[in-house]
């Protein structure tokens, strides 16, 4: 019984021990699973024996030597930059200077990558000298947490350093956080705005409600706003609101980012002023005018337009200088800007051209009253640099929509009306009408016809003889341009020359005339029919060409005509536009052996002081003076011109001679050469060839009937002289 009882007790003890062992294993399994689930690794460091036990529950293992006498253990696996910090923390705990050991550092993993860990531990056993003998703890892989912290820290540093202000608000627009740029831009201290309502003081409360509504609907809001700083100054900002949502997609916060664009707005305003303002007068310029005119047309608003420029402004620039001309424009702007009706409606389109735009009115009485007042104000004298200037203007007026349905048509018609006002003598205003438009269309047709004529060689040269008044012999001829088209026949020079001068086509026409005249004269010289000079007119635009002399050289060289046989006729109006330059050009032409004649003398405003400086050979008396010789005053005028010419050693040519009485008077007044219908009208090249043949001296016994008739006519003319 005792033996059986002992066996029973032993069995019960074994069963109890097995149950205890099972519970222990189960507890250890729970601990191991808990450590594995948490990602922590259990370590047990026997300091005296220098052994280190690890549970190795990491998915990314770290190879540590279990036998280590280092402090801290396996120090060679710790990142060099972290080693001192870990050693100090461990030393403090081992020396009872801290209740536990805790350190974050980088440790080298088995794949040779640095992994951030959180190491925590505590001494659990001491020796008799109260020195640490055993220490246990956990090692946690916090690499992903550390990277997230570094990223958040980077974001925080970025927010602190960026120049844009950042404001984080809750769903009620209460401010949760701001960055330093917010205080710099607004002047508001961070501590004073936290938990305060975000607001824009210069806008009504409905403005923020609209922003919130847009955020809820679209998720963001962007716009330019103005706000006041704490010092009362206003600044401009680009404001951008965005939504921050949680994992359930609910709105959690609002983030506002705004930048101070005050300087940019100021620069934009300056650039806008430069782009839309005239630099000389400060008035709105042509670009802004066209933009606002287009807006009125698109909106179909009734309005009127007055376009005007100054009469003879070019003469002021040429005679008194461009600086004085600019001062005049500035003075004019100041004067016109004083009137309320001109405020905001006066524009400078360029040069001396201005415009006034009247919105919401087509009332004729209002417009004419303004036009009359405008003329009156401009007529008042200006005193500039000791000069008293009296100027006038020409005004063209159009109405929308009557005179045009688009800005281009309105401008073109206003310019046409202004052009007609100037042609009528200036210092007046004219409303646009259909007849003006017809004339403008006709002018455009002539311009296109000239362009086609130049391309198809419809311009030809006619020649009018110049006869010696005493001998009746031919001494030269004037080359005159004729425009002959297949469909419209001969087009009068009075029709196409003014248009050609305005468009600049006169330069190309002049070159055609010069070339053809030189070719014809060279042919007549080669045939021994002619040995005098041909006179070719130079237009003002042609004379001002910088390469005029070179162009004439090329023509003479290509046609092989000696320069002695060429005479160039220049009007006094042309040379007086810039006398100094004219003298220089004329000297260059004379140096080439080319003769120079001044045409239409006495009809312009030439100065005798300049006249004696011009290197001329010939002075031409205009037909208007020849026609006026019936009166004593007219004869005295011609006599004066002839006397001036002779005193300057110039030859005198009278043009437009049609009557024998005129020829006799010119002979008495000592004029040398005459030109006009009395001898011949302008002839084509072929007819002039026949005329030249009639001028040849005939050998006795060889006269044809035609030659005898021509000789008889010449003799009758000479006897009449």
UniProtKB/TrEMBL annotation:
Every GGDEF domain range: 301-434
PROSITE patterns in UniProt: EAL, GGDEF, PAC, PAS
Every EAL domain range: 443-696
Domain PAS, residue spans: 151-203
TM stretches of this protein: none
InterPro entries, per the entry: Biofilm_reg_signaling, EAL_dom, EAL_sf, GGDEF_dom, Nucleotide_cyclase, PAC, PAS, PAS-assoc_C
Every PAC domain range: 221-273
PANTHER family: BIOFILM ARCHITECTURE MAINTENANCE PROTEIN MBAA, DIGUANYLATE CYCLASE DGCP
Name listed for the protein in its UniProt record: EAL domain-containing protein
């Amino acid at each position: 019984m005792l033996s059986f009882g002992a066996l029973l007790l032993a069995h019960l003890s074994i069963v109890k021990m097995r149950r205890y062992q099972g519970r222990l294993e189960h507890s250890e399994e729970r601990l191991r699973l808990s450590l594995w689930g948490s990602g922590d690794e259990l370590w047990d460091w026997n300091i005296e024996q220098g052994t280190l036990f690890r549970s190795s529950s990491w998915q990314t293992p770290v190879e540590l030597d279990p036998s280590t006498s280092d402090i801290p253990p396996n120090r060679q696996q710790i990142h060099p930059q972290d080693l001192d910090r870990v050693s100090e923390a461990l030393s403090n705990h081992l020396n009872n200077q801290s209740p536990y050991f805790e350190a974050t550092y980088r440790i080298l993993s088995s794949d040779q990558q640095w992994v951030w860990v959180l190491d925590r531990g505590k001494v659990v056993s001491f020796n008799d000298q109260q020195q640490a003998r055993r220490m246990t703890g956990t090692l946690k892989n916090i690499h992903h947490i550390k990277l997230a912290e570094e990223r958040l820290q980077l974001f925080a540093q970025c927010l602190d350093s960026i120049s844009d202000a950042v404001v984080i608000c809750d769903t009620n627009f209460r401010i949760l956080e701001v960055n330093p740029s917010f205080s710099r831009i607004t002047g508001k201290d961070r501590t004073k705005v936290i938990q305060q309502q975000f607001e824009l003081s210069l806008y009504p409360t409905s403005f923020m409600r609209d922003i919130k509504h847009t955020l809820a609907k679209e998720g963001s809001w962007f716009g330019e706003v103005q706000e006041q700083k704490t010092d009362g100054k206003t600044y401009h900002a680009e404001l951008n609101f965005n939504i921050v949502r949680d994992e359930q997609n609910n709105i959690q916060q609002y983030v506002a980012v705004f930048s101070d664009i005050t300087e940019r707005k100021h620069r934009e305003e300056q650039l806008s002023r430069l782009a839309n303002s005239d630099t000389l007068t400060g008035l709105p310029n042509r670009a802004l005018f066209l933009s606002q005119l287009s807006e009125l047309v698109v909106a179909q608003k009734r309005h009127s337009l007055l376009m005007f420029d100054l009469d003879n402004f070019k003469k002021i620039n040429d005679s008194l200088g461009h600086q004085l001309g600019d001062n005049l424009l500035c003075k004019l702007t100041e004067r016109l800007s004083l009137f309320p009706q001109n405020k905001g409606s006066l524009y400078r389109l360029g040069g001396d051209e201005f415009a006034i735009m009247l919105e919401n009115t087509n009332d004729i009485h209002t417009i004419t009253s303004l036009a009359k007042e405008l003329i009156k104000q401009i007529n008042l004298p200006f005193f500039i640099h000791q000069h008293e200037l009296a100027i006038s203007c020409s005004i063209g007026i159009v109405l929308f929509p009557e005179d045009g349905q688009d800005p281009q048509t309105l401008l073109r018609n206003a310019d046409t009306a202004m052009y007609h006002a100037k042609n009528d003598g200036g210092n007046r205003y004219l409303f646009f009408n259909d007849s003006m438009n017809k004339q403008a269309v006709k002018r455009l047709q002539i311009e296109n016809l000239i362009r086609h004529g130049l391309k198809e060689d419809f311009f030809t040269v006619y020649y009018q003889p110049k006869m010696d008044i005493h001998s009746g012999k031919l001494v030269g001829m004037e080359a005159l341009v004729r425009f002959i088209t297949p469909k419209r026949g001969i087009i009068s020079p009075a029709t196409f020359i003014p248009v050609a001068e305005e468009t600049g086509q006169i330069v190309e026409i002049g070159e055609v005339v010069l070339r053809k005249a030189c070719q014809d004269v060279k042919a007549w010289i080669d045939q021994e029919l002619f040995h005098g000079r041909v006179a070719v007119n130079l237009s003002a635009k042609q004379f001002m060409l910088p390469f005029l002399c070179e162009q004439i050289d090329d023509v003479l060289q290509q046609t092989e005509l000696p320069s002695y046989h060429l005479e160039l006729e220049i009007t006094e109006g042309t040379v007086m536009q810039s006398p100094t330059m004219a003298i220089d050009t004329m000297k260059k032409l004379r140096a080439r052996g080319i003769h120079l004649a001044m045409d239409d003398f006495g009809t312009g405003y030439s100065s005798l002081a300049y006249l004696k400086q011009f290197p001329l050979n010939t002075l031409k008396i205009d037909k208007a003076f020849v026609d006026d010789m019936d009166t004593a005053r007219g004869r005295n005028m011609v006599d004066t011109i002839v006397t001036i010419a002779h005193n300057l050693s110039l030859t005198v040519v009278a043009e437009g001679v049609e009557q024998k009485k005129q020829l006799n008077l010119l002979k008495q007044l000592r004029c040398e050469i005459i030109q006009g219908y009395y001898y011949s009208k302008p002839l084509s090249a072929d007819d002039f060839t026949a005329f030249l043949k009639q001028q040849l001296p005939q050998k006795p016994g060889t006269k044809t009937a035609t030659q005898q008739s021509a000789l008889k006519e010449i003799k009758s003319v000479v006897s009449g002289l």
